[in-house]
Amino acid sequence: MPVRTVYHLDIDSDQIEGAAIALLPGDPGRVPALAVTAPFERARELANKREYRTWIAYLGNTQSS
Q1: b/e sequence 5-42, b meaning 16+ C-beta within 10 Å
Q2: Is the pTM of this model over 0.85?
């Protein structure tokens, strides 16, 4: 499958690793705190562009971004 880029998020489809769930907190400042809170595991930041912060984390065998 070709790599797809999302310009306004500064990420591409390879980076999100097929994530199935997206959480959208209202304040970008809350994203890191949410991503590292149980039950999420192995959280890491993928991109930070303007008001958009993208992190990926795992919940059991499910990825969320």
Answers
A1: eeeebebeeebbeebeeeeeeeeeeebeeebeeeebee
A2: no
